[in-house]
Inverse folding.
């Protein structure tokens, strides 16, 4: 898996926010799978994680998974308490999800596999 070495943090919802991408997370997993997967039933979980007992600093990741594969983070918020605006926190994720629901992502995967196995 290719872990990003740098990320772009933005100020959002009263804290810091980074968006890794739903499509990128799915493609990273599919690139490591030997079998053909025709569809993905996505499981989504959002929950806050306190970072320290002595402060209100929390991580709020949106974690996704499918089949038996490890979960991956799509967006991640870090701030004091919950993100202030849930709509703004989830907006990119929901927009990308809605687009992927109607579009195949197989072509980028096939191109990636051909590049690795010429």
């Amino acid at each position: 898996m290719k872990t990003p070495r740098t990320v772009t943090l933005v100020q959002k919802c009263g804290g810091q926010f980074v968006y890794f991408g739903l499509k990128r997370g799915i493609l990273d997993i599919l690139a490591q799978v030997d079998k053909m997967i025709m569809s993905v039933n996505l499981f989504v979980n959002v929950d806050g994680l306190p970072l320290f007992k002595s402060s209100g600093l929390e991580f709020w990741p949106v974690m996704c998974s499918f089949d038996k594969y490890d979960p991956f983070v799509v967006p991640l918020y870090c701030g004091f308490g919950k993100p202030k605006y849930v709509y703004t926190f989830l907006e990119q994720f929901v927009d990308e999800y809605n687009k992927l629901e109607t579009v195949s992502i197989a072509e980028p995967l096939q191109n990636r596999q051909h590049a690795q196995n010429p």
